[in-house]
Specification:
The protein is of the alpha/beta class. Helix content is about 15%, strand content about 30%. The protein is globular, with a radius of gyration of 17 Å.
Length: about 160
């Protein structure tokens, strides 16, 4: 098991280096799983914070449909898309162009995020809507104020 985790860490470091060389802005300690659909028209427009977990099959966009005339691209809206620190983006979620996701957020599986997400929130659905506020995330992008027996625990009261 120790060897397996060391191999996984090496693969993650290699993946981050490769993505950064392509122009993607990815914070230290983030884990990027395989088969992410990255916007290739505007890679410099993708900003992912520190200690995030981006799950398999996530799509991150920074532009709308582009027309091509020969080798050049015309009529293309390009913008930056931001994912804050310590966020977890679940499998097959879609982050639309120009969206800002705050720090310590969870994006539910299959969600389509079309609007900004405030910090410390859980969103889910199509389009994604806030289903919980006030969450706290660990450095491993895990919810730390969650009680399995009774759900959410408000850390402000404790």
């Amino acid at each position: 098991m120790i060897i397996r985790s060391k191999i996984a860490a090496i693969i993650q470091k290699y993946r981050l280096i490769k993505l950064r060389l392509k122009g993607y802005d990815i914070g230290d300690g983030s884990i990027i799983e395989s088969n992410i659909i990255w916007d290739k028209v505007n890679p410099q427009g993708i900003h992912i914070g520190k200690e995030c977990l981006i799950a398999h099959g996530v799509t991150i966009l920074t532009h709308d449909h582009c027309k091509r005339v020969g080798p050049r691209v015309i009529d293309c809206y390009r913008t930056d898309t931001y994912i804050g620190d310590r966020c977890f983006v679940a499998i097959n979620a879609i982050i639309m162009p120009g969206v800002h996701i705050g720090n310590e957020c969870v994006i539910g599986a299959g969600s389509v995020v079309t609007k900004d997400v405030p910090a410390n929130s859980i969103v889910a659905g199509n389009p994604a809507k806030i289903i919980r506020k006030g969450i706290k995330m660990s450095k491993r992008a895990e919810i730390i104020n969650w009680n399995p027996e009774g759900g959410y625990v408000d850390t402000k009261k404790e």
